[in-house]
Amino acid sequence: MSGRALLVLALLAVPAAAHGQEAGEYDTSNTAWNGLSTLDALARGMGFEVHTERTLSWDEIEPTDVLFILYPTAKIEPTHLTHFLRNGGRVLLADDFGRAEEALRDLEILRGPGGAAHAEQFWDDQTYAPIAKVLDSSHPLAAGVDSITTNVPAVWRDLREGDRVFGFEDGSAVVAAIEMGDGRLVALSDPSVLINRMLEFEGNLAFTINLLRWLERPGEQPRLIIMTGDLAMLGQPSRQLGVDPQAGTVGGALGDFNEWLKNLHLYYPQEPALRIIAVIAAIILALIALVVLPRLRRSPLDGSWTRARGGGGLATPEKLLADLDRAGRGTSFALPAAMLRDSINTRLGLALGQPDALFALPENVLLTQVATRFGPSAAAALAALMPQLRVVPSRAQAASPFQSAFFPQREFERMSADADRLYRNLGEEAR
Predict the structure, then answer these.
(1) Closest by CA position to 166, among listed 195, 190, 142, 199
(2) Which one is the CATH code of 3-239: 3.30.450, 3.50.50, 3.40.50, 1.20.120?
(3) CB distance 140 to 213 below 8 Å
């Protein structure tokens, strides 16, 4: 029996032997306190066929199926789950200490540690049984539900604001809901909410009914597929299960292209292929050299590129600025912009105690930390800078005589003004 099972047993103060022979946790045939026989009966009463699976192909799932994944101890491929939702899939992913974290992170749901809930109320004043309140009363999952009773739950943090449905006073969530086209996902940070004994709480039962109704797609024979533990999802989701409102539109095409770019890291050649590519690249470069180098040799080799002939010397700072300011020259300000970007990165690192903060932190996390520590004005100043910071080349690229990036003077001046506003909002901590 797991540690979580012991906690639930203590929570409800009812011996397991009083409820029949104990099977596995999260088992639909288990009528004891830690089974799912109540969920099975509830779903069948609502018209579902209930199936439990250990191994399932993504493309075996039908449009009217609802997939429940509870406490997975095997990895769920993040891109496969995201594709399944974009294709119209309906999923509950309930996990506290299992291996769903990576898949949920891909959907911008980050898991906090277990026992980190900051609740105002606890069942029977027991600190391991925090009561999650409604955070979004307009959501169908919250219809007729005042609260959910949990048992040492994990929590979801850093969600998009509209995704929270049930949670705690510090803004962390127990239930998050996501819609992607016709696809829907509910992330539940405490799978024990669905076991037999926890469904005796009125709020938990009402929430479970809402959950099945919200994930259900109308059809002749809906199925509830329950997978737990060491499950295996095979293949890749390719079937279109629902109606994509962007299908056939420019927005849909851009969304597909963006998804392709996002998943490029999944497709990498093996070592033999890399060797073939290297040989082909070397042959191409050799051919280019044979064509180009003889033409270059026709010009006199004066060695001026070494700056060893005298006369000009290295440009002074005054001459460099004069060249940049010369009217009509159209000079790129890429190098000054790159230097300013590096300065901003250093200041943010000092202010947040995070080296290389501009590159080490995702943009939304960086903006949230700046807003929390230095206020909305600092976050607004940084947000205004982000589009420019994303397009500024590295300092080495900007200084290269072969670089083609162009950064206009007007953009550099605006970037400087925004940087000054950011520095003033960061104050002494950024020095």
Answers:
(1) 142
(2) 3.40.50
(3) yes
DSSP lists the bridge partners of residue 122 as 130
Torsion sign (Cα): 6, 7, 8, 9: positive
What does the mean pLDDT of the chain come to? 79
Tokens, residue 357? 């903060």
Torsion of CA 112, 135, 94, 367, to 10 degrees: -40
- Asked if 355 and 431 count as a contact pair (C-beta separation under 8 A), the reply is no
Residues 386-391: contacts with CB under 8 Å, at least 24 apart: 388/337, 388/414, 388/415, 388/418, 389/341, 389/344, 389/358
- The beta strands (E) that lie in 102-143 are given as 110-112, 131-134
Helix (H) or strand (E) holding 56: strand 55-57
What is the CA 109 to chain-centroid distance, rounded? 6
Q: pLDDT tens digits for 36-73? A: 999 999 999 999 999 999 999 999 999 999 999 999 99
pLDDT in tens, 203-234: 999 999 999 999 998 877 899 999 999 999 99
Domain with CATH 3.40.50 in the chain: 3-239
